[in-house]
Design a protein that fits this description.
heterodimer; A: 105 residues; mainly alpha; 4 helices; disordered C terminus; B: 205 residues; 8 helices; 54% helix; 0% strand; globular
């Protein structure tokens, strides 16, 4: 269970999962399209323990034609696994906007 | 920032623009501040527009478990319309991991406060784990009800109301103290790290 402030994404799912914003960017032509599958990574483990799952997720994305992932940090450790994979040359580009994603707490 | 699509859009475009750099990784600071919600309507602006939450009177310094439980149930009932509204409009809720009715969560916490040996309402998890799910559901119920009101968008304002002006908040404060003083290491961990945010300890400073 989550140990951080939920009030931001209780009000607006886009705070942690900006799916509506991404579809808008696709309609604007800023990005080509939005992937069919989206993944969540829990940070409650060392990144090396998540490697098998992370590789599987990256494989699914590559098979779906994904060339770029957007990492949305709910809590810093949540993106450990992806940072780990970025260093392992998965072929997936990654960008991480780091706004105060769960409100002003 | 919730419900600010323009700011969310700006953040995403700024992040995607980093791909235009010829080399990486890059780490960029932006001078823009996260909106603080000050454009949201203030309570004085909404006179006659919404019904304020009618919270029960907060009990004294050390009410009995049964008194606190009854007050908590009364508050849960008074918040019900405010909780139901965003669930209906948003189509989702973060309350529910305990798999218990919200009234049963309050009854368990009140009983636990009076006697830590009270059996947990679920037998498939250790009592400490049930306790965590239960008070997280109580927090979720209350914060979702509070954020249904137009003037309560900013996180800190929601938390200040929850932990300082509600019976549920008083329950959480007392539960946190009880856990911190417990001989059980897991309860101590919950009391120190999970029940009341650190920021609330400095609320009156």
């Amino acid at each position: 269970m989550l140990n951080f402030d939920l009030t931001g994404f209780q009000q607006d799912l886009n705070v942690c999962f900006p799916i509506e914003r991404m579809h808008e960017l696709a309609e604007e032509g800023v990005i080509g399209s939005v992937g069919k599958f989206h993944s969540m990574v829990s940070g409650a483990a060392h990144p090396s323990d998540l490697e098998v799952s992370a590789w599987s997720t990256a494989r699914t994305m590559k098979e779906g034609g994904v060339d770029t992932v957007l990492l949305v940090p709910i809590w810093p450790k949540c993106t450990w696994a992806w940072h780990y994979l970025r260093g392992r040359r998965t072929g997936v580009n990654a960008v991480q906007p780091n706004q105060n994603s769960h409100g002003k707490d | 920032m919730p419900n600010d699509s323009a700011f969310q859009n700006w953040v995403l475009k700024a992040a995607l623009a980093l791909f235009e750099r010829e080399s990486g990784p890059v780490l960029v600071d932006y001078l823009e501040e996260v909106p603080d919600g000050s454009n949201a309507m203030l309570e004085n602006d909404m006179t006659g527009m919404v019904c304020p939450i009618d919270l029960p009177r907060i009990l004294g310094v050390d009410p009995s478990a049964s008194e606190l439980g009854q007050a908590c149930l009364a508050e849960i009932a008074s918040l019900a319309p405010w909780y139901d509204l965003p669930v209906w409009t948003r189509g989702r809720t973060t309350m529910g991991p305990s798999d218990l009715d919200i009234n049963d969560t309050a009854k368990f916490v009140a009983a636990f406060r009076g006697n830590q040996e009270v059996p947990a309402p679920r037998d498939d998890l250790l009592k400490g784990c049930v306790l965590k799910l239960v008070y997280e559901d109580m927090k979720a119920y209350c914060t979702e009800a509070i954020t249904a009101q137009p003037s309560y968008g900013a996180s800190l304002r929601v938390k200040n109301l929850l932990f300082n002006e509600t019976v549920i908040g008083k329950v959480l404060w007392t539960l946190g103290g009880l856990c911190r003083d417990s001989d059980d290491e897991y309860y101590q961990h919950l009391g120190r790290n999970s029940i009341v945010p650190d920021r609330q300890f400095n609320f009156f400073i």
